[in-house]
Amino acid sequence: MHVFVTGATGWIGSAIVDELLDAGHEVTGLARSDASAAALEGKGARVRRGDLDDLDGIRAGTEQAEGVIHLANKHDWANLAMSNRTERAAVETIAGALTGTGRPFVLASALSGLAQGRPATEADPSPAFGPDSMRGGSENLALEYAEKGMRVISARFAPSVHGVGDHGFLSSIVAAARKHGVSGYIGDGTASWAAVHRTDAARLVRLGLEGAPTGSLLHIVDEEAITTREIAEAVGRTLGVPVTSIAPEDAGEHFGFVGRFFALDMSASSARTRELLNWTPFGPSLVEDIEAGAYA
What we know:
Blueprint: E1 2-6, H1 11-22, E2 26-31, H2 34-43, E3 46-49, H3 55-63, E4 67-70, H4 80-98, E5 104-110, H5 138-143, E6 151-157, E7 160-162, H6 169-180, E8 183-186, E9 192-197, H7 198-211, E10 216-220, E11 223-227, H8 228-239, E12 243-246, H9 251-255, H10 259-262, H11 271-277, H12 286-291
Helix pairs in contact: 1-7, 3-4, 6-8
Pfam families: Epimerase (PF01370)
Domain NAD-dependent epimerase/dehydratase: 3-210
Region (Disordered): 117-136
């Protein structure tokens, strides 16, 4: 299958491109920079130059492919409204180009806000509707096309997709521990995060592209719930710094933008996903990765 991938050189995207190529698929990746283009070409992938604002380019890349994996997001925390609008426009463009083709469309989504007081499941609908909601309501927007002649799959990623080289949420938490000399958790530290190793996430996305039915909500999750205190304690042991509670009102100052997420419960089950695609993760746990020096 010839697959068009946005976000192809990002932390998750680069692993997915490797997984697709290893499985015999052809890949065209969207690349903003010369460095990104060179990285894709070095792997044997094709390159389409452009970014998320280049809707004509995204449409052309989609039309020329046999499937699409949409991972890119601006993640501009200072201007979330702009990021959400851009995400929605990209999803509308891709879905519009795939309507009636029967081709698969896998889009990245998130687990936040799905459930309160329990792990989220694949049966929980996204509460995000409309252009002003999280990610521009892109999951629900894409699912509107599930019966319009394409195969729509939402990949809901755990808040920690971990491994050596991760520059996401957890790397910011580790950076805060280095900066302040203490490894913090917020409040009583009972908020829990789901987690998955990067290579396991990439394999699951590839399986979803190849075989998940339209309308599938895939939970890209290995560990269901690791408390934020457990995460902080693993960071503290690795860095050799004390572990302490950070008051909720001080979380922004201590952690920066990631503080708003570290206070959330983002636990999730992937039982249905595992059964649907016969997926068994093999990578190390989040704590094992931290203690092995993945964030050192």
